Structures are given as C-alpha cells and as structure tokens.
C-alpha cells in the first residue's frame, strides 16, 4: 500500500502530470527533489496525519517536514 501511495504522489508531481502539461511554466521541483519529498512523506505519514496530542504536536510535525526539506 505504501508503494502505491508513493507512486501516486510521484505521478501527481511528475512531468507527465496533466496539471504540468496544461501549464506553460516549468516545474518547481526537480525529479530528484520530488523523490526525496515522496520518500520522506511515506516514512513519516503517520506523524503528519495523526491528531495533535501530547506526543504529536505541531512543532513535531514541522520538525519532520523541515528534516525532509533539508535532505
């Protein structure tokens, strides 16, 4: 299931996406950056979609997302 999700997200961000074909501007993300973003999302999706609690805070979610962007 995680592989299907990753492939779906990659397809949405890919150069062959319908949205990118309709737009005349270039992509904001390289293929490499998209793969890193998708991999980080798949690895941390539980954190991103869990409800806030004493264990999962907005700060924790922002740290995870920041770590993905820095990689």
UniProtKB/TrEMBL annotation:
This is Myb/SANT-like DNA-binding domain-containing protein. It comes from Dreissena polymorpha. Pfam families: Myb_DNA-bind_5. InterPro entries: Myb_DNA-bind_5 (IPR028002). Residues 25-68 form the Myb/SANT-like DNA-binding domain.
């Amino acid at each position: 299931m995680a592989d299907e999700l990753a492939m779906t997200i990659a397809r949405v961000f890919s150069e062959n996406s319908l949205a990118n074909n309709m737009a005349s501007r270039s992509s904001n993300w390289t293929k490499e950056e998209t793969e890193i973003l998708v991999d980080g999302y798949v690895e941390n999706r539980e954190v991103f979609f869990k409800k806030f609690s004493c264990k999962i805070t907005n700060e924790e979610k922002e740290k995870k997302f920041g770590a993905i962007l820095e990689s």
